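Help wanted!
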Amino acid sequence: MTKAKDRSIDKASQQMLKRAEAEDKQLAWDRLEAMEPQCGFGTLGICCKVCSMGPCRIDPFGDGPQEGVCGANKDTIAARNLLRHIAAGAAAHSDHGRDVAHTLLIAAEGKTHHYGIIDEKKLHDIARIYDIKTEGRSKEDIAKDLAHAALAEFGNQEGELKMIARAPESRKKVWRKLGVMPRGIDREIVESMHRVNMGVDADYKNVINHGIRCSLGDGWGGSMIATDLQDIMLGSPKPVRAKVNLGVLKEDQVNIIVHGHEPTLSEMAVKAAKDPELLALAQKYGAKGINIAGMCCTANEILMRHGVPVAGDFLQQELAIVTGAVELMMVDVQCIMPALSSLATCFHTKLVTTSYKAKYPGVEHIQFNEEEAYEIACKIIRMGVENFKKRKKERVDIPKYEMDLVAGFTAEYVFHMLGGKYRATYRPLNDAIISGRVRGVAGVVGCNNPKIKHDWAHIEMVKELIKHDVLVLQTGCSAIACAKAGLMTPGDALKLTGPGLREVCEAVGIPPVLHLGSCVDNSRILIAASEVLKEGGLGGDLCDLPAAGAAPEWMSEKAITIGFYVIASGIFTVFGGDMPVKGSENVTRYITEELDSIIGGKFAFEADPIKAAHMMIDHINKKRAALKLNPMMYEPAKKEAKEEATAGAN
Amino acid sequence: MPTKTSKKNKAAGKIKIFCDLRKCTGCKSCEIACAVEHSFSKDLVKALRESVPPTKRVRIRDSFGRAVRISCQHCEEAPCVAACMSGAMYKDPKTGATKHDKDKCVGCWMCIMVCPFGAIVRSIEDKQALKCDLCPDRDDYACVIACPTGALFAGTPEEFKRKAEKKL
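Answered by r_m:
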């Protein structure tokens, strides 16, 4: 059994890992150990079980069968499996977007009074993309039309997605030429499932090209709808201070964790926690208050908009229960370990599911609906408060680790931050890149994976990037990991930052690592990149930008989809672990080499975060050289200083 | 949980690898683990790119609808040892394992012809016979560790018998 310090780099997590070990509680790390060595065919992506002639697997070492019963070879099988992953990831993000559009619709129709239209400016901006008349109309009317238009994107059959009109013209030309412009969000997912069905698409390049189309329908479609409509309905985030890590749980309060991905219910939970009646009840049971803390991307959503503290990232969901201080954990969809239900029974923690799409055996289900959102939230919180009685004081062990962070940056807010309220512009960022103060921009996103030391790869990679003057944009669990390490406060993080980037950060007053939100909010990175390009001076297409992406501890299928729409948007992307395609040399070569000349972006797989960071830096340098940008402002100085030092020594 | 064999146990000899056919699902994880163990890099992904791909010495074959593991049984009276004209095949006097000295092997394939289990494979490149060598580079056995159902078992015949009877 590996030691707690080898399992996580985070002190709070280590403390809980030790406790779990002492109490013989099985966590994800233990289950991984029991599962090892994992199936070689699955690791390499060369098993196929789509029809009943199979299951078939290709012998990776060449002396066994090289074709399945139908004749599909390892290239076909690996590519089809990959497309299935992309379709699943796109479906997850996009279904989230669909739910948000649905909520906006019923809010605009006045069927629920719990949600309103908060960001009117953004409503007008997004309505314009859909050619919806805004002048002289009430915000409800516009929102109704917008919600209908957004919902139509999912079922659109012909032409192009409307949302994707926001991409730069040069990029759209590349997509049209390759025939990967998404038509409808659902259509591309359904077509993916058709293509991977028995006896359909067998040309691995054709299969993967459709994966690109499907992923673009997510990144520039479903995810973008989710982000923008949430901003309209729940308010666009603005920079906000908050706390992160298990230390945000309070010993003297009712602790309620909201876990999952969708913000609709958690927003209400935040409001319900301030309900005087519930607070009085909490006091009756001896609690000083009701403490809501987030987990995973739900955490990011309510952190961005309300500064609600974050209890942890993906691998801390079990550890939060191990503190013995969590009265109730309410979950919606995605990234929820089924293991939580049995672990919760070892403590007093009550687990509640709220989405009909995600139920767990033996777990109480309270169905959420928008019409009675607040009442349902109150009901759940009340359950948590009632459960406070059952808390055993001697079982409570909350790690005393918490960290400050600043979150709430959006593509729109960066305008104001950089240019000021009256001349909002990306110009200062572009100028900083052109002049060589900032080397470029990197998006570091993604999950946790017990195969990699928890948080370690995220933190090491981001530290290496900011040291080399790369501005880092983050979302998802990666953002939570770096926030815990203090990289999202201007103070400490700037000490680790290269001199050029530090100057810019100090001038503008931002940390070198910016938190952009949850994993659907990767669409914010796409919009920011498009805006930087539009500002001018950094080439004519997204693939000319000195930018790179990474998912150092990825595990979800959603990460594969995100990776694909990012490379399809012309941005080189490094994944921390291999995608399950290594069994096919052709598929591996196609996505890590050949796609670069076809679509301007490609993947790399590198488990070492420092090496991966340098792959990104080298890529950014190459793009800088191609754009003939000024040399990095502080690098020659460093070299001269070194020469002087050696001359002096001589 | 796969049965892990201690180093001490292995050095003491008399260990054989058994397969509980009732538990074997034919997933071929043992085949892959064996090939990786006999590669230069001992890493799954890297092994695929080696100039000479590694050869597995254990095979899962179908026999009347049931998966059967085929590998060297380290026979007490081994026909391959008797048939070997160069003396490459020999019995280890200490452990009783059937061993193969690749420096002496001339690639006559007599061992393959006489093996009652079909457990010996050819390396065409080196013109050599290859068989289960009981993983000399590790303390345990790659196939046993890789078996997800615990069908593979390393131990003495008596131990295996006890285990098999207990599970009935």
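OP: Thanks! One thing I noticed: Strands of chain B lie at 16-19, 59-63, 66-70, 89-91, 98-100, 121-123, 128-130, 152-155.
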